[in-house]
Amino acid sequence: MLAAVILLWGSLACLARGQLASDPVISASLYELVEAQYQVQPQTGLVVAVAFPDGSVWSSGHGWSNPATEAPMRPDHRMGFASITKTFVAAVVLQLVDEGVLSLDDALGRFAGPYTHVNAGITIRQLLGHTSGVYNYTNHPSRVPRLREDLSRVWTPDEVLREFLAPPLYFAGTGASYSNSNFLLLHVLLEAATGVPLGDEIRSRLLRPLALETTTFGGDEPPNGEVPYTWSDQNGDGTLDDFRELYLAVSHNSARAAPGSMFSTAGDIARWAQYLFAESSFSASTRSDLLDWHPLSGVGEVWTAYGQGVQQYLIADTEMWGHSGWITGSSSLMVYSPEFGFSIALVDNDNRSNHVATAAIVVAYLRDLDLTSTGTKQVPSASGTLRVHPNPVSKGTALHIDGAEQVAIYDLLGRQLLTRTVRDGPVPVSGLTSGVYLIRGVSGTQWETKVLIIR
């Protein structure tokens, strides 16, 4: 029964609209690469989607919604994508800028407030780019206890701002640090500027025109499909607890609103990234503002900078644009490659995934494909001729390779560790530590990738 379920969802993994996502070699390779990452990470369930430049979308589920009942994680599951919501809000703002309704240099006080601890002179640009200095309301010690007093209560952005703010961290424009309060203030500002609820603006401007049919704005509507089990260790005993009730609580999702309340599927989010970063989505000057990168305090080596509601990444030595998301019960990542034109969305159901590591192996694979059908890059082989034995292999044993002229071994971040011409003899692996790797065989203009396990 278990094998049948896995095979069923494997057969549904390719949600093709065009050629690339339905290519059997590409689809199988992506599934194998993601499954290898799923197996080495301590996660319960994972969904990954890739949107290709030709408009096709591949998506697959890995692991479990509920391990106890062997209910699988599925590509059509609706998940909370948390701060990826900010990219939708930024798009609404930038559309209004292009329409002349707003300017990025407009002051908050023209539309909203006053609020204690908030400078009315803060600009829209400073809110979008997290340079306002406003305290992050999600850090307030009273927030979670208050939201859990009545899980059915609808919190308005105004109520949240009046109850959970504290003095600013710095004067607007003199620093840069991530604060969810910036986007809650944008929520109030947008509704004042347009006279329309923010959820309606997102639906009419973005979701309906782009046919993002599985995506909902959690600030004012529930998910429109099945939400899987979500998990979190709530009492610190090392065991994951069922978090579904709090994950879907109206009080939590209404309080997240513009900073982080969107529910969607990984496939829709991957498609959204394609639109958001398309050159035609905004005027040239507005798109330049969107991608006006600046450093943010607390940023690591992978997330390199912030623009206007979007993040810049370096993944597998490739520049990517997008945003990450985190709420208790799920973490997510959306990234787009401006160089190669593909986008990736990932989401789990227990906050335990290393999405950057998984994205890295997908990026390393996709950037070597001919995504235009007219390029000269090597293309994957459909023949399945690569033979690697033994596999798994012990560190003291060399690999024997058939069906390739040259091989290279990569770690799961896409870094090449060694390369060897097959005619030179067996491939030694004594210099590699135990773990999971990728081995790629190349013959002429074709290549094939397999998972390699070293014990």
Offer a quick outline of the entry.
With 455 residues, the chain is of the alpha+beta class. It has helices at residues 2-11, 19-22, 24-40, 85-98, 124-128, 143-147, 157-163, 181-194, 198-207, 244-247, 250-260, 266-276, 284-290, 355-366; strands spanning 14-15, 45-51, 57-66, 71-72, 79-80, 216-217, 231-232, 241-242, 262-264, 303-306, 311-315, 318-327, 330-336, 343-348, 379-380, 387-389, 400-402, 406-410, 416-421, 435-443, 446-454.
Summarize the structure in words.
It is a single chain. This protein has 455 residues and is an alpha+beta fold. The chain folds into two domains: 82-366, Beta-lactamase; 379-454. Helices cover 29% and strands 22% of the residues. It has helices at residues 2-11, 19-22, 24-40, 85-98, 124-128, 143-147, 157-163, 181-194, 198-207, 244-247, 250-260, 266-276, 284-290, 355-366; strands spanning 14-15, 45-51, 57-66, 71-72, 79-80, 216-217, 231-232, 241-242, 262-264, 303-306, 311-315, 318-327, 330-336, 343-348, 379-380, 387-389, 400-402, 406-410, 416-421, 435-443, 446-454. Strands 1, 2, 3, 4, 10, 11, 12, 13 and 14 form a nine-stranded antiparallel sheet that branches. The protein has a five-stranded mixed sheet with strand order 15-21-20-18-19. β7 (231-232) and β8 form a beta hairpin. It is globular, with a radius of gyration of 23 Å.
